Amino acid sequence: MDFLRPTHWRDALDAKAHHPDATPIAGGTDVMVEINFGRRRPSTLLDLTGVPELTDWSLDDGRLRIGAGVPYARLIDELGDRLPGLAIASRTVGSPQIRNRGTLGGNLASASPAGDGHPPLLASDAEVEVQSLRGTRTVPVGEFFTGVKRHVLADDELIAAVHVAPATGAQQFSKIGTRNAMVIAVCTFAVALHPEQQRVGTGLGSAAPTPRPATEAAEFLAAELTDTDQWNRPRPLPESVVRRFGELVAATTAPIDDVRGTANYRTHAMAVMARRTLGWVWNEHRTGRQQCA
Amino acid sequence: MRLKFTVNGRQAEADDVWEGESLLYVLRERLGLPGSKNACEQGECGSCTVRLDGVAACACLVAAGQVQDREVDTVEGLAGEDELDAVQRAFVDAGAVQCGFCTPGLLVAADDLLERCPSPSDSEIRESLAGNLCRCTGYEKIMDAVRLAADRRAEEARS
Ligand SMILES: Cc1cc2nc3c(=O)[nH]c(=O)nc-3n(C[C@H](O)[C@H](O)[C@H](O)COP(=O)(O)OP(=O)(O)OC[C@H]3O[C@@H](n4cnc5c(N)ncnc54)[C@H](O)[C@@H]3O)c2cc1C
Ligand code: FES
Ligand code: FES
Predict the structure, then answer these.
(1) What is the model's pLDDT at position A217?
(2) Which top EC class is given (chain B) (predicted)?
(3) Are A162 and A68 in contact (CB under 8 A)?
(4) How far is B36 from chain A (nearest CA, A)?
């Protein structure tokens, strides 16, 4: 096996260009499981943990640029105030040991339908910055995934960073699993209010082959809030609106039966989670106080 | 590859290491440090918990090549020359060790917690140890042990 350890981003891109079959490894929390169990025998590993550029984040022009190598623990500690939805989701990932090593870039590139980082990134209209020696492109997170464990990266490309605007309104995330720690999601739902644009963002996880937004539900809710002038003068939401939002979210799902849950259960659960998380964000929008599950 | 890194403050070397093998394998099979336990090899049980550059991690999920020139602390590094560390003593005194298989990982995780957070609340203890499974104790004695270790460390710091 070749083991490549670039110490600069440029060298990492160079390595990937010359070894297109190399498997990048960041926190190793997905890759090592596959290697330990003999499911993957990479000819070349490209270790990204020596590349300092990947573990930085910065705020440029009002948007956060988060290096692909920033682990969940740091997303929680350092960006929890600016990206509360992503932080809530990050807190549900694995265990402290997993959150110390697992990265956002690894979560995206693994492209599991159950990746907990994806729904909050969708709800906040994040973009994935992809680079190769050929240049840089940014891909909206909703277009990054092409199927179960598949994405748009070409063989010579690496994820450099994720771009996302800091929250301007309440954000929430809900995950169903068999227990609180160390659990792959049965399904997840993220919602973000964007009051300055009078828009609502959503993201569904484990409810279709790829994470997806519930566009119709989001547009319905945003229009409802705008029509009733609730963005600036929020009042308790009518039960009918909350219910309709849940129904529209559930209608977006295309789930499967698997060992973690049935398709029917997932569709039902999605409506419940949508109603609940909407209740939490709306309460926060009205009172300014975050609510926990 | 020839692997060189620091283990518990000392330089360690191993030859003919396959870069894709885990740090856990290197520690146990090549360096004669079997304190870190191998149970699941998939990050689920925490019995292989070590610190890599000061950060708690599952040694089974770190590729050998990734630790080149880095610092690893294992459970073997906790005790002093001839006495146990406060966390180790507390586990013994509180009856938090039954079969003992989970103990090394829990000790490293508990030590890491107390370094970051010297007087943790119960929920902080639970949260910090959520990645470490124990099939024997039912966890209550482990909670007792961590509280006891925190108290003793605070006492030591005062005196
Ligand atoms: C016990 C356990 C519990 C877990 N729990 C959860 C959970 O609750 N929720 C969840 O979403 N996930 C969970 N995971 C999965 C995993 O931790 C996450 O997907 C994590 O984000 C992966 O990040 P990593 O840095 O460890 O990735 P790695 O394993 O290093 O890499 C993952 C994939 O991404 C590629 N890659 C990494 N970085 C880049 C880059 N910059 N550019 C291009 N490709 C790249 C790798 O080649 C590989 O294909 C769990 C894993 C374990 C072992
Ligand atoms: S052996 Fe590493 S977590 Fe179980
Ligand atoms: S004491 Fe036996 S597993 Fe914990």
Answers:
(1) 98
(2) oxidoreductase
(3) yes
(4) 14
| B108 chain-A contacts, CB cut-off 8 A | none
pLDDT < 70 positions in chain A = 291-293
User: Is B149 a domain residue?
Assistant: yes
Q: What local confidence, expressed as pLDDT, does residue A44 receive?
A: 97
Cα atoms found within 13 Å of the Cα of residue B72, Cβ hemisphere only: 31
How many of the other CB atoms lie within 10 Å of CB of B119?
11
Final residue of a structural domain among B20, B54, B75: B75
Query: Are the beta carbons of A100 and B1 separated by less than 8 Å?
Result: no
- Closest alpha carbon to A86 in A30, A48, A126, A113: A126
> Domain containing B35: what range?
3-75
Q: What is the CATH number of the domain that holds B12?
A: 3.10.20.30
- Domains of chain A, start order: 2-45+57-164 (3.30.465.10), 171-286 (3.30.390.50)
Same structural domain, B101 and B147: yes
Distance CA A260, CA A205 (A): 13
pLDDT of residue A290: 77
pLDDT, residue A292, reads: 62
ipTM over 0.85: yes
